[in-house]
UniProtKB/TrEMBL annotation, chain A:
PROSITE patterns: ABC_TRANSPORTER_2 (PS50893). This is ABC transporter ATP-binding protein. It holds the Pfam family ABC_tran. InterPro entries: AAA+_ATPase, ABC_transporter-like_ATP-bd, P-loop_NTPase. GO terms for molecular function: ATP binding; ATP hydrolysis activity.
Automatic annotation (TrEMBL), chain B:
GO terms for cellular component: plasma membrane. It comes from Actinokineospora fastidiosa. This is ABC-2 type transport system permease protein. The chain crosses the membrane at residues 20-37, 57-77, 98-123, 129-151, 158-177, 206-226. Keywords: Membrane, Transmembrane, Transmembrane helix. It comes from the Bacteria. GO terms for molecular function: ABC-type transporter activity. It holds the Pfam family ABC2_membrane_4.
């Protein structure tokens, strides 16, 4: 029953449509909400968390309406993107206060358990204002977890984390999802979620653009067309060789080197070095053209 | 009411540098009272300086400004810095949150205003006025706190709106339009202080019954409006 369901949900601010007719159902396990900045991910999460009223449609968490229903929070935890923590408290005070506000039977034990999960017990008696960004994030995760919710929503949980912290957070989310919880997190960096399994909902410009298994989305990503600028010891010879490759759809010779249109990012990048070596051509630079995330996402949308 | 919310609110209010803003006003009040008492002779009576210090400064400036600083911070600071989400994502009736916040704001405002006003009244030699000031400040604090707490949930600029009420309504309009004083919390506090104190140090023109009823109306309506608004409080600003 730990489901998050959006039915025909739209949300607009004046003339601006932030979320446009989104229908989705998220069950237990790990789900990534992906999309470029400004796509409406935060709005969707806030709608799920009952902190925003849908302008249209309905949001239900475990069958209960999310909006104007404080009782729902017994079952739901939220970690917002905004790094807002009461810095004058220690992590222990902060998490304990959350446990008390949830009116748990044994708030101290619940706070200890939550701080254990995020491995913050050693630093729990320091003020949160002295923490690093990752530790603050973990203290907020602990506060959101203290009542053992079946549904946990996290807005950009990997933002500002170093790779090690990111790994730790991913392991944490993975293991919580393994316990049968419904974990939904948002991210605007596709590579961030590479290690994660589970399902993905892609949101672009307020619309649900794609949804499905993460591996499927990743395959689409690595197989996407791409433009490279290549400089070598013999551009023309290289161009002749490249056009024979199946993963290359076009080559043009310019003053700055070769412009290569690859139809398949993955295959092309693996093939190009071998190809040059076989013809004793020295590659001096391979530059992928600047590619905005929006482009990647909109490519995913059209396929 | 929720003891955890009250404890956190009190720590947030009293732990910030903003609380130091409350210090200079009582010092000025007590200093002016000493001056007033010292200036009394056969030409200058208590009725000459008393209403200025207790009414125009104490009840018209110190009480509302203290209530504004405290009342708009009790919940407003959390709304500003976004920590309100921690409170909102708890299975708590919204009325419980508002009542806890209101109680803390009321107690802090009362302590910060009633004590210096009572001390000033004692310096002026009136024990009855000291009691009157405590009662007036307590009732006024409750009405003001409820009003400013409601403003902090309903408006993005609670301090500005609060100042408009204090300066334009309570000080300017009341002196031109007599009926406006019925809706002035400062007048409610003054009427109670005057009725209990019964000295020439304060004057007022409202009846005690009107004052009590109107102050109660402000407190009730403020609490109701704040609770109602918090029930459908939507996060704004950071939505993308």
């Amino acid at each position: 029953m730990n489901t998050v369901e959006l039915t025909g949900v739209s949300r607009w601010y004046g003339n601006v449509v932030a979320v446009n007719d989104v229908t989705l159902s998220i069950g237990p396990g790990l789900t990534g909400l992906l999309g470029p900045n400004g796509a409406g991910k935060t709005t969707v999460l806030h709608l799920m968390a009952g902190l925003l009223a849908p302008s249209q449609g309905e949001v239900r968490v475990s069958g209960e309406p999310a909006w104007r229903n404080p009782a729902m929070y017994r079952n739901l935890g939220l970690v917002t993107e905004r790094e807002s923590v009461p810095g004058f408290l220690t992590a222990w005070e902060f998490v304990l206060a959350s446990a008390k506000l949830h009116k748990l039977p044994d708030p101290a034990a619940a706070a200890r358990a939550a701080l254990d999960v995020v491995e913050l017990r050693d630093a729990q008696d320091r003020r949160i204002s002295t923490y690093s960004k990752g530790m603050r994030q973990r203290s907020r995760v602990a506060a959101a977890l203290v009542h053992d919710p079946a549904v946990l929503l996290l807005d950009e949980p990997f933002n500002g984390m170093d790779p090690r912290q990111r790994m730790h957070m991913m392991d944490l989310l993975d293991s919580m999802a393994g316990e049968g919880r419904t974990i939904v997190f948002s991210s605007h960096i596709l590579e961030e979620v590479e290690q994660l399994s589970g399902t993905v909902q892609v949101i672009v410009a307020g619309r649900l653009a794609a949804s499905g298994d993460y591996r499927h989305i990743r395959r689409l990503m690595t197989n996407r067309p791409h433009v490279f600028t290549i400089a070598s010891s013999d551009d023309r010879a290289l161009a002749t060789a490249l056009i024979g490759e199946e993963s290359v759809s076009g080559v043009s010779v310019t003053a700055g080197g070769l412009q290569v249109h690859a139809s398949d990012y993955g295959t092309f990048t693996r093939a190009v070095a071998k190809l040059a070596k076989a013809r004793a051509i020295r590659l001096t630079s391979i530059l992928p053209s600047d590619e905005s995330l929006e482009k990647v996402f909109s490519y995913l949308v059209t396929t | 009411m929720n003891p955890t919310i009250m404890r956190l609110t009190a720590r947030a209010l009293l732990g910030r540098r903003r609380v130091l803003l409350l210090l200079p006003m009582p010092i000025v009040l007590i200093g002016l009272t000493l001056l007033g008492v010292a200036s009394e002779d056969e030409y200058v009576t208590a009725g000459d300086w008393g209403p200025l210090v207790f009414g125009n400064l104490g009840l018209a400036v110190i009480l509302p400004l203290t209530a504004l600083i405290v009342g708009s911070s009790a919940l407003g600071l959390e709304i500003d810095d976004g920590t309100i989400t921690h409170l909102l994502t708890k299975p708590l009736p919204r009325g419980e949150i508002i009542l806890s916040k209101l109680t803390v704001a009321w107690l802090v405002t009362t302590a910060a205003t009633a004590v210096p006003l009572a001390v000033a009244a004692l310096i002026a030699g009136s024990g009855a006025l000291a009691v009157g000031m405590v009662v007036g400040a307590a009732v006024g604090s409750l009405a003001y706190s409820a009003l400013f707490l409601a403003l902090s949930v309903m408006s993005k600029r609670p301090v500005a709106v609060g100042l408009v009420y204090i300066v334009l309504w309570e000080n300017l309009l009341v002196s031109f339009v007599d009926g406006a004083r019925v809706f002035s919390i400062r007048q409610h506090a003054g009427a109670l202080a005057d009725a209990i104190g019964d000295t020439p140090l304060v004057d007022s023109s409202l009846t005690v019954l009107t004052a009590v009823l109107m102050a109660a109306a402000f407190a009730t309506l403020g609490t109701y409006a704040a609770t109602r608004r918090l029930r459908s409080f939507a996060l704004t600003g950071e939505a993308n």
